[in-house]
Design a protein that fits this description.
Largest sheet: 14 strands, antiparallel, barrel
Order of helices and strands: HHEEEEEEEEEEEEEEEEE
Number of domains: 1
Number of helices: 2
Distance between the termini: 60 Å
CATH superfamily: monomeric porin ompg
Shape: globular
Structural class: mainly beta
Radius of gyration: 26 Å
Helix content: 10-25%
Strand content: over 45%
CATH architecture: Beta Barrel
Strand order of the largest sheet: 1-2-3-4-5-6-7-10-12-13-14-15-16-17
């Protein structure tokens, strides 16, 4: 290794060393051995930690679940009442090298007189030298309950992930021995959700990941199991207030719960003008604030932008996160049947 090979060894002066005191050669040799062990341990630690982080990265973070709740609840498929396609691009923690970058394409539509909803979500996520692609299909069945609707949803898909270790910069010769690209891992994924809407009120409960994954280092693969104790349960609810013929107010919240972990929640307040311009703010108890803007170019095409900033320790090193949305609906709806459509 370069850093070790540049060290020169001083040979002892003629004569016997003092009893009990090691020679300079022994001191230098011990130092080199300890340095080699320490560096190898650091690399092994990184190799152990990164696969663990992949498990947590199986769900890319997005702020615009308000504009695209299909990403957190499969029961929402078809609830917009028309075939619509939305594209999202998110750049997280701008200013930090290797920060997450996520691209999402989502589409859903109602079928069979809106009793059935189908959806498709394709997500490409990159974190450092790790890349992940998700393909999910969602199915929702709606039951009419007077002025309200109850929907049950299932999601099924595949997740592929791999790490390009060879893209890392090697500082010392010989360290590239560890930089061997991982093979592509493919794992199945399932989700479940329930969604209820009544006039201007809605509530949804979902489990976005029904399988729990853990990397098996001995077998060099992901093992999977059903473990409700490690599930993340998402509860989303809100109400749309009509303040005047021109103005509407939409408060909502998202609560994320997992046994043994801290309860997370988002508090959101958004307002609309003439159903063409939207603006709002979100607060998260993990010390983050987000601002959302949306505009309807016409009855079918919408553009959205979100900026969020972490005012905790992470905010000292990043310039926040940015996300943009483009949505096109292939049919204009006069009657809004869902309070989440704003």
């Amino acid at each position: 290794m370069n850093r070790i090979s540049t060290m020169t060894t001083r040979h002892p002066a003629p004569g016997n060393p003092t009893p009990g005191n090691p020679t300079p050669v022994n001191l230098k040799t011990d130092y080199i051995i300890k340095l080699i062990i320490m560096k190898r341990s650091i690399y092994l630690l990184l190799l152990l930690l990164i696969p663990l982080s992949l498990t947590g990265q199986l769900t890319p973070v997005t702020n615009q679940y308000i504009l695209n709740p299909l990403t957190i609840n499969p029961a929402y498929a078809g609830s917009r009442g028309a075939l619509n396609v939305a594209a999202f691009y998110r750049r997280q923690w701008v200013g930090i090298a290797g920060s997450p970058e996520t691209m999402t394409l989502a589409a859903d539509a109602p079928l069979l007189d809106s009793k059935l909803g189908l959806g498709l979500i394709i997500t490409n996520d990159k974190l450092g030298v790790t890349k992940e692609t998700q393909l999910h299909t969602t199915y929702a069945y709606k039951i009419s309950m007077g002025d309200g609707n109850l929907s049950f949803g299932l999601g099924a898909g595949l997740i592929t992930t791999n790490t390009a270790w060879s893209d890392l910069v090697v500082l010392d010769q010989g360290d590239d021995y560890f930089l061997i690209d991982s093979r592509v891992f493919v794992v199945p994924d399932f989700s479940f959700g329930v969604y209820y809407s009544y006039k201007n009120y809605f509530a949804g409960l979902s489990v976005p990941k029904l399988l729990v994954y853990k990397f098996d280092f001995n077998k060099n693969k992901y093992s999977q199991k059903f473990d409700p104790g490690q599930y993340y349960y998402l509860f989303n609810t809100g109400y749309l207030f009509t303040l005047s013929p021109k103005f509407k107010l939409f408060p909502s919240t998202l609560v994320t719960f997992s046994p043994g972990e801290k309860l997370l929640y988002d508090i959101n307040v958004h307002a609309s003008y003439l159903d063409r311009f939207w603006g709002g703010v979100s607060y998260r108890n993990n010390r983050a604030v987000a601002v959302l803007l949306q505009a309807a170019v016409n009855e079918q095409f919408k553009v959205g932008y979100t900026y969020d900033f972490d005012f905790g320790k992470l905010g000292r090193y990043s310039n926040g996160s940015h996300e943009i949305m483009l949505r096109y609906e292939f049919k204009y709806k006069v009657d809004v049947v869902n309070p989440l459509i704003f």
